[in-house]
Specification:
With 339 residues, the chain is α/β, with parallel strands linked by helices. Helices cover 48% and strands 16% of the residues. It folds into 2 domains: 176 residues, Rossmann fold (3-Layer(aba) Sandwich), CATH 3.40.50; 140 residues, Isocitrate/Isopropylmalate dehydrogenase-like (Rossmann fold, 3-Layer(aba) Sandwich), CATH 3.40.50.10750. The chain contains 13 helices and 11 strands. Helix 2 packs across helix 13, helix 4 crosses helix 5 and helix 6 packs parallel to helix 7. 48% of the residues are buried.
Length: 339
């Protein structure tokens, strides 16, 4: 079963309020309409009301049941600007700069999430990843138990017997460029927790390399070996192994041959790449050549969910990221209640 179908039913029963700050894009409005009609979330779209209504009319999209907020005219702008100033004045932000940023769509969206006026944000259809991530890191910030934020792609590969019947998480494929061993270990731990807490599968984590269990000697291999050691030491409860080549990680007979006795070899459903070069290239190759569905980059490690989109996304892609974001919000709230 497609894991997103299960998440869709969960979020329908616990509807979250998701803000979409890019109301000037037709795909966003189409996704907002579908998400509202399907009951997967309450949707708030940011932008100029007249521009949004004009675009919606051109596209034949009804805005019924969708809230539209223009940050520049919002009654909460002053409150948000003061909040942003307090959060960033130690970094040299002035009150004037805080007001200007709070009035922008991307900052206003994350300030809504920070204040609890929205449960999560989805952005990136018309902005690069850095524009989505920067406000999130400055305002939402990382959870206290996480050293750094990272990102994964949820990959659904058709007609694939590997992973969870073709379902994998690839990390980091969207954010951390060149993690050191400690950071790579944190990425592995965060992604394992995402697999279990969001998608309900027991994670089997492969720390990927061009070497399997010492078949090659290089400082790049050493980084993965050290990251594997750190991750196992910090979280012995996670099924995790490395260093593994990708075929040894996902194909059973190759895993048995190259990494006999490995608890992960041939069975991995979470693939941790040594750097962003490898992770980003891999997800795009699998998406295009295997015709896989790729959702993300999904940010993990933040106090509250803010997620990115590929600028080549479709309305259906946006809906699925909305569903994942809403699930993250539900999990985050449940985690807070347990503390």
């Amino acid at each position: 079963m497609n894991p997103l179908l299960r998440l869709r039913e969960i979020v329908k029963s616990k509807r979250q309020r998701i803000v979409l700050p890019e109301g000037n894009d037709g795909r966003i409005l189409e996704a907002a309409r579908k998400a509202t009609d399907e009951g997967v979330a309450e949707i708030v779209v940011l932008g100029d009301e007249d521009d949004i209504k004009k675009l919606a009319e051109e596209k034949g999209i009804s805005l019924r049941g969708i809230e539209i907020i223009n940050p520049k005219k919002s009654a909460k702008l002053e409150e948000y600007a003061k909040l942003l100033y307090e959060l960033r004045k130690h970094k040299g932000m002035t009150q004037e700069e805080a007001y200007e940023k709070a009035a922008s769509y991307l900052y206003y969206g994350v300030l809504m999430v920070y204040k609890g006026d929205a449960d999560g944000e989805v952005s990136g259809a018309t902005h690069p990843t850095s524009d989505t991530v920067r406000p999130a890191l400055q305002v939402i910030r990382c959870s206290p138990d996480v050293e750094l934020a990272s990102a994964f792609f949820a990959m659904i590969v058709p007609n694939c017997p590997y992973g969870e019947n073709g379902f994998f998480l690839f990390a980091d494929s969207g954010l951390v460029v060149d993690p050191n061993p400690r950071e790579l270990a944190q990425i592995a731990i965060s992604t394992a927790d995402s697999m279990k807490n969001l998608f309900g599968y027991e994670p089997r984590v492969a720390m990927l390399s061009f070497s399997t269990k010492g078949s090659a000697s290089h400082y790049l291999v050493d980084k993965v070996v050290e990251a594997t050691r750190i991750a196992k030491e910090r979280r012995p409860d996670i099924i995790l192994d490395g260093e593994l080549q990708v075929d040894a990680a996902i194909i059973p007979w190759v895993g048995e041959k190259k990494a006999p006795g490995s608890p992960v070899g041939g069975r991995a459903n979470v693939l941790i790449f040594p750097d962003l070069d490898a992770g980003n290239i891999a997800y795009k190759l699998v998406q295009r050549l295997a015709k896989a569905e790729a959702y993300g980059p999904i940010l993990q490690g933040l106090n509250k969910p803010v997620n990115d989109l590929s600028r080549g996304c479709s309305a259906d892609d946006i809906i699925n990221v909305i569903i994942i974001t809403a699930t993250q919000a539900i999990v985050s709230k449940e985690k807070t209640l347990r503390r």
